[in-house]
Write the structure tokens for this entry.
Amino acid sequence: MELNLLSFTTDELAKFKRLNIEECKVLNRWLQHRIQLLQNLPAIDKPVNEVSLSNRAKNVLLSHDLLTVKDVVDYGLDNICLLRGAGEKIATEIKKAVMKLGI
């Protein structure tokens, strides 16, 4: 899993610059633990934010309270294109991402 610095605001990045070495070590341990938890999480229970999707696709799902892959599958992959803001391109992207997870 790769840390995407583009997802942080300028203020959040500035906080990282002020960390001393011990704080960095604590942060590193926490991040490693979080990564391990996410890697062991069954794919069906993964949050939509942790799935490789475009921001637009994630926003469509989240705005309709589809928060996990399970929520998306329960809603029905064939129904995704019926969501407001989801055209055929977004629906196809979401279907491919779910299938890539082996579901």
User: Anything to note?
Assistant: The chain has a mean pLDDT of 82. The CA atoms of residues 9 and 15 lie 10 Å apart. The two ends are 20 Å apart (CA to CA). DSSP finds five helices and no strands in the chain.
